[in-house]
Amino acid sequence: MNTPVFRFAPSPNGELHLGHAYSALLNAKLARQTGGRLLLRIEDIDLARCTPEFEAGIYRDLEWLGIEWERPVRRQSEHFGDYETALKRLIAEELVYPAFMSRGEIRASIADAEGRGRLWPRDPDGVPLYPAFDKALSRRERERRMAGAPFAWRLDMEAAKSRVGGALSWTEFSSEELAAAEQIDARPEQWGDVVVARKEIPTSYHLAVVIDDALQDISHVVRGRDLYAATGVQRLLQELLGLPAPRYFHHRLILGPDGRKLSKSLGDSGIAALRESGASAADVRGKVGL
Ligand code: GLU
Among 21, 44, 111, 156, who pairs with 50 as Cys (CB 3.0-4.6 Å)? Predict the structure, then answer.
């Protein structure tokens, strides 16, 4: 059997909290138990929100937790060329289209449809699907608009699904021990025409993740339950781009005292804040049950 390869892939747009600690510690434990490798990937495509300070904080927190990862670390912002190559392929195969509607225009168009009694579909995160009007624009009109306004490259979900043809699924482990697994139906259409890239940035989260997981030979994607449904979109992109599919385990989320998902602005569950208040790495492991 090939050596298992795990990864922890935080975005440096805030401080790590207990949820990240659990994810990182679980990946490290599984890598150790399976004789596998652990990679750290910095997902910093959002140049406006990611900062060197948050990135330094990630290294500091992981080191303090006793986690060891391989160097060099892959920083997505240094690999836009890889994503651009894939994007060009999707453009050439007419699987993406430039979408010009602003947030305000999207909101207005949906409010208008709902005002007329139509229930607008929402994605698994509760966000209304993109009204795909731009798909109907002529080539000339597209080119005219692309020269001016900002736009996003969106996946033509219908075209993408028919390109792939049959049913899509992924392998999901049933527990932290990765003993048993089942096949889960991928339902990318739940997300509508997702953003694959933007005018200024040749990628989005989904595109960068599938390319990196493939380039880094990731065999096991172990990440939070909040990304479970997104796996459907990622499986579709893997098929479209001819990339291998890793196996997945979407772990439980660590919730705050109010029962809600932790966010990066929640100071008291931040790893740095815990450390500064005198907690030890063992205390953090205890808190997340590892
Ligand atoms: N960068 C993503 C995050 O911080 C995780 C991506 C993934 O694990 O696939 O939420």
Answer: 44
Please tell me if the CB atom of residue 86 comes closer than 6 angstroms to any atom of ligand 1: no
Q: Return the CATH number at 286.
A: 3.40.50.620
Q: Is the pTM value of this prediction over 0.70?
A: yes
Q: Are residues 260 and 245 in the same domain?
A: no
Tokens of 224: 């939070």
| 223 Cβ inside 6 Å of ligand 1 | yes
Distance between Cα 136 and ligand 1 center (Å): 33
Q: How far apart are CA 176 and CA 104, in angstroms?
A: 42
Neighbours of 271 (CB within 10 A): 24
- Number of domains comprising the chain: 2
What's the domain range around 91? 79-251
Residues 25 and 65 in one domain: yes
Tens-digit pLDDT profile for residues 154-166: 999 999 999 999 8
Q: Are residues 36 and 116 in the same domain?
A: no
Q: Do 242 and 260 share a domain, yes or no?
A: no
- What is the Å distance from ligand 1's center to 222 Cα? 10
Element (H, E) at 216: none
Query: Measuring from atom 4 of ligand 1, which residue has the nearest CA?
Result: 10
Q: Is the pLDDT of residue 1 over 70?
A: no
